[in-house]
Amino acid sequence: MRIIICGAGQVGSHAAEVLASTDNNITVIDTDASRLSAIADSLDVATLTGSCSDAEVLREAGCAKADLLIAVTDQDEVNMLTAAIAKGVGAAKTIARVHHGAYLSQRDFNYEHHLNIDRLICPEYSTALKVASKLRNPAALAIETFGRGKIQMQQFPVSKDATAIGKPLSELKLPEGTRLAVISRNREAFIPIATSMVQKDDNVVLVGNTNTFHEARKLFHDDKQGRRKIVLMGGTPMAVWLCRSLRNRNFSIRLFETDRERAKELADKLDWITVIQADPTDRSVFEEEHIGQSDVFVSLRSDDEDNIIASVLAKSMGVTMVIAVLQSANYLDLVYHIGVDQAFSPSLVAAQEIQATLDDSPLQQMSTLADGVVDAYRVRVGRDADMIGKPLHEVKLTPNWIIAAIRRGQRAWVPSADDVVEMGDTVLVIGRHGMEKQLKKLFATE
After folding, report:
1. What SS3 class is residue 248?
2. Which of the four CATH numbers 3.40.50.1820, 3.40.50.980, 3.40.50.720, 3.90.170.10 does domain 2-121 have?
3. What's phi and psi for 122, nearest 5 deg?
4. d(CA 270, CA 263)
5. What is the pTM (predicted TM-score) of this model?
6. 330-358 pLDDT, tens per residue?
């Protein structure tokens, strides 16, 4: 594929490294010649010095015949303008990186649609969702998201005293927007129906809208761990998204920010957490605030060295779980050897999102569940699918498959029995392994 990457920072450089390794024809554009020189010295890619929002520069880079243009500079407006111009010049598909949540949420205005951009990505937001999933579900066997964090899917064991044990699903009254997708018992797995009941020691796969998932999960698994004490270092936008994602999730959160004005702003914006203007890498602050007694420490500053140092300090002082967010994906393997329990990189997350966008196949496997007996697929509904326009209660999918979630445009939700599937929808389908051919036929993906 012919791919143009606009921006040679951390995200652009890592994307170039990942995409160049798969025999793509890559051209990187940046205004900083030294950045381009560093990339050209290590990768087999073409480089071009210039403004990526200049149509002439894009033409010179071969945009008219490009299969994909990725705009990942540090400026949101430049990225969106570049992606929009690239489509006009002739690029087949465009991706623009944004930092500001208002562009991504698209509650009042669909920037993708208006500017004819195929995909907006925000690596910091996606990374915050991954960290939040890790914190909410440290013992979960599998965690997947669908629809930019609007849907959660987990596989976990049923507690011995769970409320759901011995009750038919029809009587259990799961919260609206949740669905029990799979029950696994004695190395066998099946798609449950209304009369199905869970038993002690079962494993289940639960799917739900993010705002109702937690309540549904409590019916099957009681963690009984009380409020967990979370410490966040760094008042970055990623920290804000993380706090919002963890709100009302049985967490006590303290956020440390050194800048006085930023700390005050965060205290006003996030009134359900405690914001402290101090530096937790200062050993005296660490001891005075009893950070070592916390359950989780997450380092979220923009400086990787600060995050690594703070994470090592937290682990050495007794924090149970330490998570580091690192801008450079090159540090990820290193930090596990110095005591960090989990590490995330927005650069790596961005590369993963770009690769997912490149995969335009109508059927993609997301994960394998229940010891390989069950798979989860993302499927695009074809125009000839028989189920289009029918209420789901009239579509006979069980015992092999269920439609666990639907994504339509910017919306994503767990459907009820009365919801209908439309052509072009993307659906999360869960069912038995080894039946891909039947699945393609069912959704007319071929």
Report:
1. coil
2. 3.40.50.720
3. -135, 95
4. 10
5. 0.82
6. 888 888 888 899 999 998 888 888 887 78
